[in-house]
Amino acid sequence: MDLIQAILLAIVEGLTEYLPVSSTAHMIFTSSYFEIQNDDFVKLFQTAIQFGAILAVVVLYWRKFFDFSRLNFYVKLACAVVPALALGYIFDEKIDAVLGEPIPIAIVLIIGGFVLLFIDRFFKNPTVHQEEDISIKKAITIGFWQCLAMMPGTSRSAASIIGGMQQGLTRQTAAEFSFFLAVPTMLAVTVYAIVLKKYETTGLKGYELLLQNPDNIKLFLLGNVIAFVVSILAIKFFIEIIKKYGFKPWGWYRIVVGSLLLIYFVYVK
């Protein structure tokens, strides 16, 4: 992976991590286009630059994350993240086996697009208008919804936002809780990818891949900085869009992009 490819992957991560369009799918398609998707360092990079996206949420919502008088906020996040951590650990190898297959992911993108076209019709009367009113039970339920994102192309953001709306949250409250929930979820995934996971081709762990040469460390640091900056812009943009237009624009986006990618990988690639 060269510098330009790393920059483009980081931009894609920052743009798509918090949108209901699946950042994993977009990065897989990008790396497949460059024909670097099977490289172990690329696989690590695509996961590890989520750390920059995590910092974006912490910075934007720093009052929430550093108000230690609100213990209930941390308890809700801790409870909500348990399902994804447990199931993710159990099914990690099976997930990896699917990650390299762009055609099924394109199909999931399209299916998810149709879901987003109609999702606003199903949840018209929200009862929870702010994070403080989310119960621990609702938080855990949203955490289970988030597990749907283990299927590449689904979108962690879309799954947890839909779960939030199903639990009576407004669109904005569901989106913001999805951002909050992303922090412990993605932090755990990033730590696992760097510290514990052994990569198939090289047999090295993540930190060993990073330390393999100085260029890997430079790309890792640059990728996180870019993902951080772009994520801040994407989060602000996303909140404004869903407040005005709901999820329909993202539904059409998924259908169009998924269809184009399906055509590309079936008939061109």
Question: Topology of this protein?
Answer:
Blueprint: H1 3-16, H2 23-33, H3 40-48, H4 50-60, H5 62-65, H6 71-90, H7 92-99, H8 102-122, H9 136-146, H10 156-166, H11 171-196, H12 206-210, H13 214-245, H14 248-268
Helix pairs in contact: 1-2, 1-13, 2-8, 4-11, 4-13, 6-9, 6-11, 8-14, 9-10, 10-11
Give the tags:
mainly alpha
Characterize this entry briefly.
The chain is mostly helical. It has 14 helices and no strands.
Structural overview:
The chain has 14 helices and no strands. It has one domain (3-268). It has helices at 3-16, 23-33, 40-48, 50-60, 62-65, 71-90, 92-99, 102-122, 136-146, 156-166, 171-196, 206-210, 214-245, 248-268. The protein has 269 residues and is mainly alpha-helical.
